[in-house]
Protein backbone atom coordinates (compact mmCIF):
# COMPACT_ATOMS: atom_id res chain seq x y z
CA UNK A 1 0.00 0.00 0.00
CA UNK A 2 3.15 2.12 0.20
CA UNK A 3 3.32 5.52 -1.54
CA UNK A 4 5.85 5.07 -4.36
CA UNK A 5 8.25 7.83 -5.43
CA UNK A 6 10.14 7.73 -8.70
CA UNK A 7 13.48 9.41 -8.06
CA UNK A 8 16.05 10.70 -10.51
CA UNK A 9 19.80 10.56 -10.21
CA UNK A 10 22.44 12.92 -11.43
CA UNK A 11 25.87 11.31 -11.71
CA UNK A 12 24.93 8.71 -9.11
CA UNK A 13 23.47 11.17 -6.58
CA UNK A 14 19.80 11.70 -5.86
CA UNK A 15 18.59 14.97 -7.36
CA UNK A 16 17.33 17.69 -5.07
CA UNK A 17 13.94 17.70 -6.80
CA UNK A 18 13.69 13.99 -6.06
CA UNK A 19 14.35 14.57 -2.36
CA UNK A 20 11.51 17.09 -2.53
CA UNK A 21 9.27 14.47 -4.14
CA UNK A 22 10.11 11.98 -1.38
CA UNK A 23 9.18 14.53 1.27
CA UNK A 24 5.95 15.23 -0.59
CA UNK A 25 5.18 11.50 -0.80
CA UNK A 26 5.96 11.02 2.88
CA UNK A 27 3.40 13.70 3.79
CA UNK A 28 0.74 11.84 1.80
CA UNK A 29 1.82 8.52 3.32
CA UNK A 30 1.44 9.99 6.82
CA UNK A 31 -2.07 11.12 5.93
CA UNK A 32 -2.96 7.68 4.51
CA UNK A 33 -1.30 5.83 7.38
CA UNK A 34 1.24 4.03 5.21
CA UNK A 35 4.96 4.07 4.39
CA UNK A 36 7.01 5.57 1.57
CA UNK A 37 9.11 3.64 -0.93
CA UNK A 38 11.44 5.22 -3.49
CA UNK A 39 12.39 3.64 -6.81
CA UNK A 40 15.84 4.37 -8.19
CA UNK A 41 16.87 3.34 -11.71
CA UNK A 42 20.43 2.87 -12.91
CA UNK A 43 23.88 2.87 -11.36
CA UNK A 44 23.97 4.47 -7.93
CA UNK A 45 25.94 4.32 -4.75
CA UNK A 46 23.83 2.76 -2.01
CA UNK A 47 25.07 5.26 0.61
CA UNK A 48 23.63 7.99 -1.63
CA UNK A 49 20.35 6.13 -1.86
CA UNK A 50 20.16 5.66 1.91
CA UNK A 51 19.85 9.43 2.14
CA UNK A 52 16.33 9.10 0.75
CA UNK A 53 15.52 8.05 4.31
CA UNK A 54 16.42 11.48 5.67
CA UNK A 55 13.51 12.84 3.67
CA UNK A 56 11.05 10.17 4.72
CA UNK A 57 11.47 7.06 2.53
CA UNK A 58 11.49 3.84 4.55
CA UNK A 59 12.82 1.83 1.65
CA UNK A 60 14.54 2.32 -1.70
CA UNK A 61 14.07 -0.21 -4.47
CA UNK A 62 17.19 -0.04 -6.56
CA UNK A 63 17.38 -1.38 -10.11
CA UNK A 64 21.13 -1.42 -10.67
CA UNK A 65 20.90 -2.16 -14.39
CA UNK A 66 23.48 0.05 -16.17
CA UNK A 67 21.28 0.11 -19.29
CA UNK A 68 19.04 2.40 -17.25
CA UNK A 69 21.78 5.03 -16.88
CA UNK A 70 20.37 6.25 -20.13
CA UNK A 71 17.01 8.11 -20.28
CA UNK A 72 14.48 5.51 -21.38
CA UNK A 73 10.81 6.16 -20.74
CA UNK A 74 9.67 2.72 -21.83
CA UNK A 75 12.01 0.72 -19.59
CA UNK A 76 11.56 3.15 -16.70
CA UNK A 77 7.79 2.81 -16.94
CA UNK A 78 8.05 -1.00 -16.95
CA UNK A 79 10.15 -0.87 -13.79
CA UNK A 80 7.77 1.60 -12.16
CA UNK A 81 4.69 -0.49 -12.97
CA UNK A 82 6.28 -3.61 -11.49
CA UNK A 83 7.39 -1.73 -8.39
CA UNK A 84 3.86 -0.34 -7.96
CA UNK A 85 2.45 -3.83 -8.23
CA UNK A 86 4.93 -5.32 -5.76
CA UNK A 87 4.36 -2.52 -3.24
CA UNK A 88 0.61 -2.38 -3.98
CA UNK A 89 1.05 1.36 -4.39
CA UNK A 90 -2.04 3.35 -5.13
CA UNK A 91 -0.29 6.72 -5.06
CA UNK A 92 2.80 7.29 -7.21
CA UNK A 93 4.80 10.53 -7.16
CA UNK A 94 7.03 11.71 -10.03
CA UNK A 95 9.01 14.98 -10.12
CA UNK A 96 8.01 16.95 -13.23
CA UNK A 97 10.38 16.84 -16.21
CA UNK A 98 10.04 15.82 -19.85
CA UNK A 99 11.21 12.36 -18.91
CA UNK A 100 9.03 12.23 -15.79
CA UNK A 101 5.97 13.06 -17.89
CA UNK A 102 6.75 10.33 -20.41
CA UNK A 103 7.26 7.74 -17.66
CA UNK A 104 4.03 8.86 -15.94
CA UNK A 105 2.09 8.56 -19.19
CA UNK A 106 3.32 5.08 -20.02
CA UNK A 107 2.94 3.74 -16.50
CA UNK A 108 -0.47 5.43 -16.28
CA UNK A 109 -1.73 3.73 -19.43
CA UNK A 110 -0.58 0.33 -18.14
CA UNK A 111 -2.01 0.77 -14.68
CA UNK A 112 -5.19 2.56 -15.84
CA UNK A 113 -4.18 5.23 -13.38
CA UNK A 114 -5.36 8.82 -13.22
CA UNK A 115 -2.32 10.90 -14.24
CA UNK A 116 -2.09 14.61 -13.47
CA UNK A 117 1.03 16.54 -14.44
CA UNK A 118 2.04 19.94 -13.07
CA UNK A 119 0.64 19.67 -9.55
CA UNK A 120 1.39 22.72 -7.42
CA UNK A 121 0.67 21.66 -3.82
CA UNK A 122 -0.34 18.75 -1.61
CA UNK A 123 -3.55 16.89 -2.51
CA UNK A 124 -6.69 17.35 -0.45
CA UNK A 125 -7.73 13.90 0.67
CA UNK A 126 -11.17 13.64 2.25
CA UNK A 127 -13.09 10.37 2.30
CA UNK A 128 -13.03 9.07 -1.27
CA UNK A 129 -12.08 12.38 -2.81
CA UNK A 130 -8.48 12.89 -3.90
CA UNK A 131 -8.21 16.45 -5.21
CA UNK A 132 -5.16 18.12 -6.70
CA UNK A 133 -4.46 21.55 -8.17
CA UNK A 134 -2.55 21.76 -11.42
CA UNK A 135 -0.94 24.60 -13.31
CA UNK A 136 -2.58 25.34 -16.70
CA UNK A 137 -2.19 27.91 -19.49
CA UNK A 138 1.52 28.18 -18.67
CA UNK A 139 0.82 29.50 -15.18
CA UNK A 140 -1.96 31.91 -16.18
CA UNK A 141 -4.48 29.74 -14.30
CA UNK A 142 -4.97 26.62 -12.18
CA UNK A 143 -7.38 23.70 -12.40
CA UNK A 144 -8.75 21.65 -9.56
CA UNK A 145 -8.92 17.96 -10.51
CA UNK A 146 -10.41 14.96 -8.74
CA UNK A 147 -8.32 11.89 -9.42
CA UNK A 148 -11.02 9.25 -9.64
CA UNK A 149 -9.18 6.03 -10.58
CA UNK A 150 -7.98 3.66 -7.85
CA UNK A 151 -4.37 4.31 -8.86
CA UNK A 152 -3.08 7.85 -9.04
CA UNK A 153 0.11 9.22 -10.56
CA UNK A 154 1.01 12.72 -9.39
CA UNK A 155 3.61 14.57 -11.44
CA UNK A 156 4.62 17.45 -9.19
CA UNK A 157 6.18 20.86 -9.82
CA UNK A 158 9.53 21.47 -8.20
CA UNK A 159 8.18 23.86 -5.58
CA UNK A 160 4.95 21.94 -4.84
CA UNK A 161 6.15 21.92 -1.23
CA UNK A 162 9.02 23.64 0.48
CA UNK A 163 11.81 21.07 0.68
CA UNK A 164 13.75 20.79 3.89
CA UNK A 165 17.32 20.34 2.69
CA UNK A 166 18.60 19.40 6.10
CA UNK A 167 16.00 16.73 6.86
CA UNK A 168 17.35 14.16 9.28
CA UNK A 169 15.26 10.98 9.26
CA UNK A 170 16.98 7.59 9.60
CA UNK A 171 18.67 6.10 6.51
CA UNK A 172 16.44 4.18 4.11
CA UNK A 173 16.79 0.47 3.65
CA UNK A 174 18.12 -0.13 0.12
CA UNK A 175 16.83 -3.28 -1.60
CA UNK A 176 17.87 -4.65 -4.97
CA UNK A 177 14.93 -4.83 -7.36
CA UNK A 178 14.95 -6.73 -10.66
CA UNK A 179 11.94 -5.99 -12.84
CA UNK A 180 11.50 -7.79 -16.15
CA UNK A 181 12.42 -5.28 -18.85
CA UNK A 182 11.33 -6.00 -22.43
CA UNK A 183 13.80 -5.78 -25.29
CA UNK A 184 11.54 -3.27 -27.05
CA UNK A 185 12.78 -0.54 -24.75
CA UNK A 186 16.39 -0.98 -25.82
CA UNK A 187 16.03 -1.14 -29.60
CA UNK A 188 16.97 2.44 -30.42
CA UNK A 189 20.64 3.04 -31.17
CA UNK A 190 22.27 5.98 -29.42
CA UNK A 191 24.55 7.76 -31.88
CA UNK A 192 25.81 10.53 -29.62
CA UNK A 193 25.12 12.23 -26.32
CA UNK A 194 26.08 15.78 -25.51
CA UNK A 195 25.75 16.83 -21.90
CA UNK A 196 26.92 19.84 -20.04
CA UNK A 197 28.51 18.31 -17.02
CA UNK A 198 29.84 20.99 -14.73
CA UNK A 199 26.93 23.39 -14.89
CA UNK A 200 24.08 23.65 -12.43
CA UNK A 201 20.99 22.34 -14.22
CA UNK A 202 18.26 24.90 -14.79
CA UNK A 203 15.42 22.74 -13.60
CA UNK A 204 17.21 21.92 -10.35
CA UNK A 205 18.63 25.37 -9.65
CA UNK A 206 17.46 27.39 -6.67
CA UNK A 207 18.78 30.61 -8.24
CA UNK A 208 18.77 31.50 -11.94
CA UNK A 209 20.38 34.54 -13.52
CA UNK A 210 18.93 35.02 -16.98
CA UNK A 211 19.81 37.38 -19.80
CA UNK A 212 17.92 38.84 -22.76
CA UNK A 213 18.65 40.82 -25.85
CA UNK A 214 19.51 43.74 -23.59
CA UNK A 215 22.96 42.18 -23.09
CA UNK A 216 23.70 43.09 -26.73
CA UNK A 217 25.93 40.13 -27.60
CA UNK A 218 27.61 36.93 -26.39
CA UNK A 219 30.82 38.87 -25.68
CA UNK A 220 29.05 40.55 -22.74
CA UNK A 221 27.82 37.37 -21.14
CA UNK A 222 30.72 37.26 -18.68
CA UNK A 223 28.89 40.00 -16.74
CA UNK A 224 26.01 37.65 -16.17
CA UNK A 225 28.16 34.55 -15.61
CA UNK A 226 30.12 36.40 -12.92
CA UNK A 227 26.96 37.23 -10.99
CA UNK A 228 25.74 33.67 -11.42
CA UNK A 229 28.96 32.23 -10.06
CA UNK A 230 28.95 34.64 -7.11
CA UNK A 231 25.43 33.48 -6.24
CA UNK A 232 25.92 29.79 -7.09
CA UNK A 233 23.24 30.21 -9.75
CA UNK A 234 22.44 28.55 -13.06
CA UNK A 235 22.17 30.73 -16.17
CA UNK A 236 19.28 31.03 -18.59
CA UNK A 237 18.23 33.28 -21.46
CA UNK A 238 15.32 34.52 -23.54
CA UNK A 239 14.41 32.95 -26.85
CA UNK A 240 15.96 35.53 -29.19
CA UNK A 241 19.25 35.02 -27.36
CA UNK A 242 19.32 31.31 -28.15
CA UNK A 243 17.91 31.90 -31.64
CA UNK A 244 20.86 34.22 -32.27
CA UNK A 245 23.20 31.52 -30.92
CA UNK A 246 24.54 33.80 -28.20
CA UNK A 247 23.71 30.99 -25.79
CA UNK A 248 22.93 27.26 -26.25
CA UNK A 249 19.34 26.26 -26.98
CA UNK A 250 18.93 24.28 -23.74
CA UNK A 251 19.24 27.56 -21.76
CA UNK A 252 16.21 29.13 -23.38
CA UNK A 253 13.39 29.70 -20.93
CA UNK A 254 9.71 30.24 -21.64
CA UNK A 255 6.68 28.96 -23.41
CA UNK A 256 8.71 27.17 -26.07
CA UNK A 257 11.73 26.50 -23.87
CA UNK A 258 12.33 25.24 -20.37
CA UNK A 259 9.93 26.06 -17.56
CA UNK A 260 11.69 26.85 -14.34
CA UNK A 261 10.53 27.32 -10.77
CA UNK A 262 13.54 28.51 -8.76
CA UNK A 263 13.44 30.34 -5.46
CA UNK A 264 15.03 33.37 -7.15
CA UNK A 265 14.93 34.41 -10.82
CA UNK A 266 17.00 37.43 -11.84
CA UNK A 267 16.08 38.75 -15.30
CA UNK A 268 18.67 41.03 -16.90
CA UNK A 269 17.71 42.96 -20.03
CA UNK A 270 14.65 40.81 -20.71
CA UNK A 271 11.48 42.68 -21.66
CA UNK A 272 9.10 40.18 -20.06
CA UNK A 273 7.02 39.10 -23.06
CA UNK A 274 4.16 36.84 -22.06
CA UNK A 275 5.85 33.84 -23.71
CA UNK A 276 8.91 34.36 -21.54
CA UNK A 277 6.82 34.82 -18.39
CA UNK A 278 5.14 31.48 -19.10
CA UNK A 279 8.42 29.80 -18.24
CA UNK A 280 9.20 31.69 -15.06
CA UNK A 281 5.94 32.67 -13.38
CA UNK A 282 6.21 29.77 -10.95
CA UNK A 283 9.37 31.26 -9.38
CA UNK A 284 9.13 32.30 -5.74
CA UNK A 285 10.93 35.64 -6.11
CA UNK A 286 11.54 37.54 -9.36
CA UNK A 287 14.05 40.37 -9.78
CA UNK A 288 13.98 42.47 -12.94
CA UNK A 289 16.77 44.74 -14.12
CA UNK A 290 15.87 46.77 -17.19
CA UNK A 291 16.67 50.27 -18.40
CA UNK A 292 13.09 50.77 -19.57
CA UNK A 293 10.77 51.60 -16.65
CA UNK A 294 7.84 50.54 -18.85
CA UNK A 295 9.21 47.00 -19.46
CA UNK A 296 6.28 44.62 -18.87
CA UNK A 297 8.44 42.34 -16.71
CA UNK A 298 8.23 44.81 -13.79
CA UNK A 299 4.52 43.93 -13.44
CA UNK A 300 5.49 40.36 -12.51
CA UNK A 301 8.50 41.23 -10.41
CA UNK A 302 9.03 41.32 -6.65
CA UNK A 303 12.10 43.58 -6.89
CA UNK A 304 13.07 45.86 -9.72
CA UNK A 305 15.91 48.12 -10.71
CA UNK A 306 15.53 50.59 -13.58
CA UNK A 307 19.00 51.03 -14.95
CA UNK A 308 21.75 49.93 -17.30
CA UNK A 309 22.70 46.29 -16.78
CA UNK A 310 26.26 46.96 -17.92
CA UNK A 311 26.69 49.16 -14.90
CA UNK A 312 24.49 47.29 -12.42
CA UNK A 313 25.61 43.70 -12.96
CA UNK A 314 29.24 44.23 -11.82
CA UNK A 315 28.02 46.02 -8.71
CA UNK A 316 25.65 43.22 -7.82
CA UNK A 317 28.44 40.71 -8.41
CA UNK A 318 30.72 42.58 -6.00
CA UNK A 319 27.99 42.76 -3.37
CA UNK A 320 27.19 39.05 -3.79
CA UNK A 321 30.87 38.09 -3.47
CA UNK A 322 31.06 39.92 -0.19
CA UNK A 323 28.30 37.71 1.16
CA UNK A 324 30.28 34.52 0.83
CA UNK B 1 5.13 7.57 -45.99
CA UNK B 2 1.98 8.00 -43.97
CA UNK B 3 2.14 10.62 -41.22
CA UNK B 4 -0.48 11.43 -38.62
CA UNK B 5 -0.15 14.85 -36.97
CA UNK B 6 -2.27 15.50 -33.89
CA UNK B 7 -3.06 19.16 -33.34
CA UNK B 8 -4.59 21.11 -30.49
CA UNK B 9 -6.64 24.27 -30.83
CA UNK B 10 -5.63 26.63 -28.05
CA UNK B 11 -5.85 30.31 -27.08
CA UNK B 12 -3.14 32.45 -28.63
CA UNK B 13 -0.08 32.72 -26.36
CA UNK B 14 -0.89 36.35 -25.52
CA UNK B 15 -4.58 35.72 -24.72
CA UNK B 16 -5.98 36.84 -21.41
CA UNK B 17 -7.39 33.76 -19.70
CA UNK B 18 -10.75 34.00 -17.91
CA UNK B 19 -13.49 31.51 -17.10
CA UNK B 20 -17.29 31.33 -17.32
CA UNK B 21 -20.05 29.00 -16.08
CA UNK B 22 -19.11 29.37 -12.46
CA UNK B 23 -15.39 28.95 -13.30
CA UNK B 24 -15.84 25.57 -14.99
CA UNK B 25 -15.27 26.62 -18.62
CA UNK B 26 -12.72 28.66 -20.52
CA UNK B 27 -14.23 31.95 -21.68
CA UNK B 28 -13.62 31.82 -25.43
CA UNK B 29 -15.22 35.21 -26.11
CA UNK B 30 -12.64 37.48 -27.69
CA UNK B 31 -9.98 34.78 -27.52
CA UNK B 32 -8.17 33.96 -30.74
CA UNK B 33 -7.64 30.22 -31.19
CA UNK B 34 -4.47 28.96 -32.84
CA UNK B 35 -2.87 25.61 -33.66
CA UNK B 36 -0.74 24.73 -30.62
CA UNK B 37 2.76 26.18 -31.31
CA UNK B 38 4.51 22.85 -30.74
CA UNK B 39 1.95 21.06 -32.90
CA UNK B 40 2.62 23.66 -35.57
CA UNK B 41 6.29 22.65 -35.58
CA UNK B 42 5.30 18.98 -35.85
CA UNK B 43 3.00 19.74 -38.76
CA UNK B 44 5.62 21.80 -40.59
CA UNK B 45 8.15 18.98 -40.32
CA UNK B 46 5.56 16.42 -41.44
CA UNK B 47 4.84 18.46 -44.58
CA UNK B 48 8.58 18.80 -45.32
CA UNK B 49 9.09 15.05 -44.93
CA UNK B 50 6.16 14.31 -47.20
CA UNK B 51 7.54 16.65 -49.85
CA UNK B 52 10.90 14.85 -49.70
CA UNK B 53 9.71 11.26 -49.66
CA UNK B 54 6.15 11.29 -51.08
CA UNK B 55 3.33 10.16 -48.90
CA UNK B 56 0.40 11.57 -47.07
CA UNK B 57 -0.11 13.81 -44.04
CA UNK B 58 -3.32 13.42 -42.05
CA UNK B 59 -4.14 15.92 -39.32
CA UNK B 60 -6.21 14.80 -36.38
CA UNK B 61 -7.98 16.89 -33.80
CA UNK B 62 -10.02 15.63 -30.88
CA UNK B 63 -12.56 18.32 -30.04
CA UNK B 64 -15.53 20.37 -31.13
CA UNK B 65 -16.31 22.24 -34.35
CA UNK B 66 -14.82 25.51 -33.07
CA UNK B 67 -11.42 24.05 -34.05
CA UNK B 68 -12.41 23.71 -37.73
CA UNK B 69 -10.62 26.95 -38.71
CA UNK B 70 -7.37 25.60 -37.21
CA UNK B 71 -7.90 22.29 -39.01
CA UNK B 72 -8.45 24.15 -42.31
CA UNK B 73 -5.28 26.10 -41.63
CA UNK B 74 -3.39 22.82 -41.17
CA UNK B 75 -4.75 21.69 -44.55
CA UNK B 76 -3.69 25.01 -46.06
CA UNK B 77 -0.19 24.44 -44.66
CA UNK B 78 0.06 21.23 -46.67
CA UNK B 79 -1.72 18.41 -44.86
CA UNK B 80 -3.71 16.24 -47.28
CA UNK B 81 -6.71 15.30 -45.22
CA UNK B 82 -8.15 15.81 -41.77
CA UNK B 83 -10.09 13.88 -39.17
CA UNK B 84 -11.89 15.45 -36.24
CA UNK B 85 -13.13 13.24 -33.43
CA UNK B 86 -16.23 15.06 -32.33
CA UNK B 87 -15.95 15.17 -28.54
CA UNK B 88 -14.63 17.59 -25.93
CA UNK B 89 -12.12 15.22 -24.32
CA UNK B 90 -12.44 14.82 -20.55
CA UNK B 91 -8.68 14.61 -19.98
CA UNK B 92 -5.38 13.53 -21.55
CA UNK B 93 -6.33 9.87 -21.22
CA UNK B 94 -9.56 10.42 -23.16
CA UNK B 95 -7.67 12.35 -25.86
CA UNK B 96 -5.10 9.56 -26.14
CA UNK B 97 -7.78 6.84 -26.39
CA UNK B 98 -9.39 8.70 -29.32
CA UNK B 99 -6.04 9.20 -31.09
CA UNK B 100 -5.02 5.57 -30.58
CA UNK B 101 -8.37 4.42 -31.94
CA UNK B 102 -7.89 6.39 -35.17
CA UNK B 103 -4.27 5.24 -35.43
CA UNK B 104 -5.26 1.57 -35.18
CA UNK B 105 -7.59 1.88 -38.18
CA UNK B 106 -4.83 3.15 -40.43
CA UNK B 107 -1.18 2.36 -40.69
CA UNK B 108 0.91 5.41 -39.94
CA UNK B 109 4.69 5.35 -40.11
CA UNK B 110 4.91 8.36 -37.86
CA UNK B 111 2.60 9.92 -35.32
CA UNK B 112 3.74 13.46 -34.56
CA UNK B 113 2.43 16.00 -32.10
CA UNK B 114 3.73 18.85 -30.00
CA UNK B 115 5.68 18.02 -26.87
CA UNK B 116 2.80 19.53 -24.85
CA UNK B 117 -0.36 21.51 -25.40
CA UNK B 118 -0.11 25.09 -24.20
CA UNK B 119 -3.48 24.96 -22.44
CA UNK B 120 -2.98 22.00 -20.13
CA UNK B 121 0.84 21.84 -20.32
CA UNK B 122 0.83 18.19 -19.36
CA UNK B 123 3.08 16.65 -22.01
CA UNK B 124 1.65 13.19 -21.51
CA UNK B 125 -0.50 12.49 -24.58
CA UNK B 126 2.37 11.19 -26.75
CA UNK B 127 3.46 8.78 -24.04
CA UNK B 128 -0.10 7.56 -23.50
CA UNK B 129 -0.72 7.06 -27.23
CA UNK B 130 2.59 5.23 -27.67
CA UNK B 131 1.82 2.92 -24.78
CA UNK B 132 -1.68 2.20 -26.08
CA UNK B 133 -0.25 1.35 -29.51
CA UNK B 134 2.76 -0.47 -28.11
CA UNK B 135 5.19 1.82 -29.93
CA UNK B 136 8.37 3.60 -28.87
CA UNK B 137 8.08 7.34 -28.25
CA UNK B 138 10.53 10.18 -27.87
CA UNK B 139 10.09 13.75 -26.70
CA UNK B 140 11.03 16.57 -26.97
CA UNK B 141 12.37 16.02 -30.50
CA UNK B 142 14.33 18.94 -31.96
CA UNK B 143 15.44 17.36 -35.24
CA UNK B 144 14.01 14.53 -37.30
CA UNK B 145 15.24 12.90 -40.49
CA UNK B 146 13.88 9.80 -42.14
CA UNK B 147 15.85 7.38 -44.26
CA UNK B 148 13.76 4.43 -45.45
CA UNK B 149 12.35 2.94 -42.28
CA UNK B 150 14.90 4.51 -39.95
CA UNK B 151 14.41 7.78 -38.10
CA UNK B 152 17.35 9.84 -36.89
CA UNK B 153 16.18 11.87 -33.95
CA UNK B 154 17.80 14.60 -31.90
CA UNK B 155 16.05 14.92 -28.59
CA UNK B 156 16.59 17.07 -25.55
CA UNK B 157 17.68 15.16 -22.46
CA UNK B 158 18.37 16.43 -18.96
CA UNK B 159 21.10 19.07 -19.41
CA UNK B 160 21.87 18.36 -23.05
CA UNK B 161 20.86 16.49 -26.14
CA UNK B 162 21.19 13.11 -27.73
CA UNK B 163 21.05 11.69 -31.22
CA UNK B 164 19.22 8.38 -31.68
CA UNK B 165 18.37 6.01 -34.49
CA UNK B 166 15.06 4.19 -34.21
CA UNK B 167 12.87 2.16 -36.54
CA UNK B 168 9.46 3.33 -37.68
CA UNK B 169 6.67 3.38 -36.64
CA UNK B 170 7.21 5.89 -33.85
CA UNK B 171 5.34 8.44 -31.78
CA UNK B 172 7.18 11.74 -31.33
CA UNK B 173 6.57 14.87 -29.28
CA UNK B 174 8.09 17.78 -31.21
CA UNK B 175 9.47 21.22 -30.43
CA UNK B 176 11.53 23.81 -32.25
CA UNK B 177 13.82 23.93 -34.12
CA UNK B 178 12.50 20.78 -35.83
CA UNK B 179 11.15 22.90 -38.71
CA UNK B 180 10.54 26.48 -39.72
CA UNK B 181 7.09 27.79 -39.00
CA UNK B 182 5.21 28.36 -42.22
CA UNK B 183 2.39 30.63 -43.25
CA UNK B 184 -0.21 29.22 -45.60
CA UNK B 185 0.12 30.30 -49.24
CA UNK B 186 -2.82 31.65 -51.22
CA UNK B 187 -2.87 28.43 -53.22
CA UNK B 188 -2.77 26.44 -49.98
CA UNK B 189 -5.77 28.30 -48.64
CA UNK B 190 -7.73 27.74 -51.86
CA UNK B 191 -7.02 24.02 -52.06
CA UNK B 192 -7.66 23.52 -48.32
CA UNK B 193 -11.32 24.28 -48.91
CA UNK B 194 -11.80 21.14 -50.93
CA UNK B 195 -9.57 18.77 -48.96
CA UNK B 196 -11.51 16.16 -46.97
CA UNK B 197 -12.33 16.87 -43.31
CA UNK B 198 -13.97 13.82 -41.87
CA UNK B 199 -15.89 14.20 -38.59
CA UNK B 200 -16.13 10.94 -36.65
CA UNK B 201 -17.84 10.02 -33.39
CA UNK B 202 -15.71 9.22 -30.33
CA UNK B 203 -15.20 5.81 -28.77
CA UNK B 204 -16.29 5.21 -25.18
CA UNK B 205 -13.73 5.82 -22.46
CA UNK B 206 -13.57 5.52 -18.74
CA UNK B 207 -13.17 8.76 -16.90
CA UNK B 208 -10.09 8.52 -14.71
CA UNK B 209 -10.09 12.11 -13.53
CA UNK B 210 -12.68 14.85 -13.26
CA UNK B 211 -11.83 18.52 -13.75
CA UNK B 212 -13.62 20.81 -11.32
CA UNK B 213 -13.11 24.52 -10.98
CA UNK B 214 -10.55 26.80 -12.53
CA UNK B 215 -8.86 29.58 -10.60
CA UNK B 216 -6.67 32.53 -11.49
CA UNK B 217 -3.42 33.22 -9.64
CA UNK B 218 -3.53 35.64 -6.74
CA UNK B 219 -2.54 39.11 -7.95
CA UNK B 220 1.13 39.83 -7.51
CA UNK B 221 2.01 42.40 -4.82
CA UNK B 222 3.65 45.63 -5.96
CA UNK B 223 7.21 45.40 -7.23
CA UNK B 224 9.69 46.95 -4.79
CA UNK B 225 11.83 49.38 -6.78
CA UNK B 226 15.45 49.90 -5.84
CA UNK B 227 17.23 53.00 -7.13
CA UNK B 228 19.99 52.17 -9.61
CA UNK B 229 22.60 54.03 -7.59
CA UNK B 230 21.86 51.79 -4.60
CA UNK B 231 21.85 48.52 -6.56
CA UNK B 232 23.84 46.75 -3.80
CA UNK B 233 20.82 47.07 -1.51
CA UNK B 234 19.14 44.44 -3.67
CA UNK B 235 21.54 41.72 -2.54
CA UNK B 236 20.91 42.58 1.11
CA UNK B 237 17.12 42.55 0.63
CA UNK B 238 17.28 39.21 -1.14
CA UNK B 239 19.17 37.84 1.81
CA UNK B 240 17.34 39.38 4.75
CA UNK B 241 13.83 40.12 3.46
CA UNK B 242 13.06 37.65 0.67
CA UNK B 243 15.44 35.04 2.16
CA UNK B 244 16.27 33.56 -1.23
CA UNK B 245 20.07 33.78 -1.11
C1 LIG C 1 4.77 31.49 -30.16
C2 LIG C 1 5.88 32.22 -29.50
C3 LIG C 1 6.64 31.57 -28.53
C4 LIG C 1 7.66 32.24 -27.88
N1 LIG C 1 8.36 31.58 -26.90
C5 LIG C 1 9.28 32.26 -26.19
C6 LIG C 1 9.99 31.63 -25.12
O1 LIG C 1 9.80 30.45 -24.84
N2 LIG C 1 10.88 32.34 -24.42
C7 LIG C 1 11.14 33.66 -24.69
O2 LIG C 1 11.96 34.26 -23.99
N3 LIG C 1 10.52 34.25 -25.71
C8 LIG C 1 9.60 33.60 -26.47
N4 LIG C 1 8.99 34.23 -27.51
C9 LIG C 1 9.47 35.57 -27.89
C10 LIG C 1 8.91 36.68 -27.03
O3 LIG C 1 7.66 37.09 -27.54
C11 LIG C 1 9.86 37.87 -26.98
O4 LIG C 1 10.12 38.30 -28.30
C12 LIG C 1 11.20 37.58 -26.30
O5 LIG C 1 10.98 37.00 -25.04
C13 LIG C 1 11.96 38.87 -26.12
O6 LIG C 1 13.25 38.61 -25.64
P1 LIG C 1 14.08 39.70 -24.87
O7 LIG C 1 13.28 40.22 -23.75
O8 LIG C 1 15.41 39.13 -24.58
O9 LIG C 1 14.33 40.82 -25.99
P2 LIG C 1 13.66 42.23 -26.20
O10 LIG C 1 12.21 42.15 -26.29
O11 LIG C 1 14.40 42.84 -27.33
O12 LIG C 1 13.97 43.02 -24.87
C14 LIG C 1 15.23 43.45 -24.48
C15 LIG C 1 15.05 44.22 -23.18
O13 LIG C 1 16.32 44.62 -22.72
C16 LIG C 1 16.23 45.95 -22.23
N5 LIG C 1 17.57 46.54 -22.34
C17 LIG C 1 18.26 46.84 -23.46
N6 LIG C 1 19.47 47.35 -23.16
C18 LIG C 1 19.55 47.36 -21.81
C19 LIG C 1 20.55 47.79 -20.90
N7 LIG C 1 21.72 48.27 -21.31
N8 LIG C 1 20.28 47.69 -19.59
C20 LIG C 1 19.09 47.21 -19.14
N9 LIG C 1 18.13 46.77 -19.96
C21 LIG C 1 18.35 46.86 -21.29
C22 LIG C 1 15.18 46.60 -23.07
O14 LIG C 1 14.59 47.69 -22.39
C23 LIG C 1 14.20 45.47 -23.33
O15 LIG C 1 13.18 45.45 -22.35
C24 LIG C 1 7.97 33.58 -28.21
C25 LIG C 1 7.22 34.22 -29.19
C26 LIG C 1 6.18 33.57 -29.83
C27 LIG C 1 5.40 34.31 -30.87
Q: How would you portray this structure in words?
A:
The complex is a heterodimer of chains A (about 325) and B (about 240). In chain A, about 25% of the residues lie in helices and about 25% in strands. Chain A has about 325 residues and is an alpha/beta fold. The longest helix of chain A is centred in the first third of the chain and has 17 residues, at about 15-30. With about 240 residues, chain B is α/β, with parallel strands linked by helices. Chain B has helices spanning about 35-55, 70-75, 90-105, 125-135, 185-190, 230-240, and strands at about 1-5, 10, 20, 25, 35, 55-60, 80-85, 110-115, 135-145, 150-155, 160-165, 170-175, 195-200, 210-215, 225. Chain B has a 9-stranded mixed β-sheet with strand order 11-10-9-12-8-1-6-7-13, with helices on both faces. In chain B, strands 2-5 form a two-stranded antiparallel sheet. Chain B has a two-stranded antiparallel ribbon with strand order 3-4. In chain B, α2 (about 70-75) packs across α5 (about 185-190). Chain B is globular, with a radius of gyration of 21 Å. Chains A and B meet through α3, α4, β7, β9 and β10 of A and α3, α4, β9, β10 and β11 of B. Bound molecules: flavin-adenine dinucleotide. Flavin-adenine dinucleotide (FAD) binds near residues 214, 241, 253, 270 and 292 of chain A.
